[in-house]
């Protein structure tokens, strides 16, 4: 991402933070933040084709095999589900055929996490609790090779989720973001094939001052990618005519 002050490579930032997590695990036995965060980091690095994702996946897989995806002393469906998505991403696309040891570790870890998620299944199809179900459905949707077809009734789970939707259970955006992909047959892994539109839109931008100092009125027409925020318009105007259109961020 770019700002008027500098360019920031978010993948490099994430790689650095992930290395810090792994180092903390190596020295203390626990992550600097949480295993959920490490799983999310691993998934993002995998999606971005970062070579660092394999090391992170190896640590995550060892944790899964040790059954340490816990929260307050209980198995965490959310963490296991996010870990499953991350491990499957690496297993599916990032590991070379020569890395047979890592492939085997990932396979075993995926078998363990899916089994634990299924063991947390309730009679009404909910996996863990209603809020963890969205991620769990995503995980089970991509790891079907690691469990029996009769172990999970997807339709039953989604029916219960839809019933909860009508009751407003997923009104908060954070909760909705985890359940929405499953309702349209998608998972977080699908961002790998996402292509953003390069279509531009024309914006007519005006600046007027009638309050303090010399009065002025400037206008300019710029093109920015569709869906851009105001900052992109300000940057385009400044680039086109910096003497009249300049700004600072705080």
TrEMBL record:
Name of the protein in its database record: Transcobalamin-1-like
Localization, UniProt: Secreted
Lineage top rank: taxon: Eukaryota
Binding site for cyanocob(III)alamin: 33-37, 78, 129, 178
UniProt-listed GO biological process terms: cobalamin transport; cobalt ion transport
An example Gene Ontology molecular-function term: cobalamin binding
Assigned keywords, A-Z: Cobalt, Cobalt transport, Disulfide bond, Ion transport, Secreted, Signal, Transport
GO cellular component: extracellular space
Annotated disulfide bonds: 46-89
Transport is among the record's keywords: yes
Family that this chain belongs to: Belongs to the eukaryotic cobalamin transport proteins family.
Any one Pfam family match given in the protein's UniProt record, by short name: Cobalamin_bind
Gene3D superfamilies, sorted: 1.50.10.20, 2.170.130.30
């Amino acid at each position: 991402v770019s700002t008027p002050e500098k360019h920031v490579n978010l993948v490099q930032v994430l790689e650095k933070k992930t290395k810090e997590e792994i180092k903390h695990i190596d020295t203390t036995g626990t992550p600097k933040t949480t295993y959920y965060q490490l799983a999310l980091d691993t998934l993002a690095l995998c999606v971005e084709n970062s070579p660092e994702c394999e090391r992170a996946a190896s640590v995550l897989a060892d944790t899964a095999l040790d059954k340490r995806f816990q929260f307050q002393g209980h198995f965490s469906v959310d963490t296991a589900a996010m870990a499953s998505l991350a491990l499957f991403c690496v297993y599916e696309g990032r590991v070379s055929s020569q890395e047979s040891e890592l492939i085997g570790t990932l396979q075993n870890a995926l078998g363990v996490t899916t089994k634990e998620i299924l063991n947390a299944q309730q009679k009404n199809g909910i996996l863990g609790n209603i809020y963890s179900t969205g991620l769990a459905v995503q995980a089970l949707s991509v790891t079907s090779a690691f469990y029996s077809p009769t172990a999970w009734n997807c339709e039953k789970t989604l029916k219960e989720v839809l019933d909860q939707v009508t009751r407003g259970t997923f009104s908060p955006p954070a909760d909705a973001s985890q359940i929405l992909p499953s309702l349209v047959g998608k998972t977080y892994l699908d961002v790998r094939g996402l292509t953003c539109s390069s279509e531009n839109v024309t914006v007519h931008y005006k600046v007027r001052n009638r309050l303090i100092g010399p009065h002025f009125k400037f206008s300019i027409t710029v093109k920015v990618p569709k869906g851009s925020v105001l900052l992109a318009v300000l940057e385009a105007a400044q680039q086109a005519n910096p003497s009249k259109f300049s700004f600072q961020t705080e």
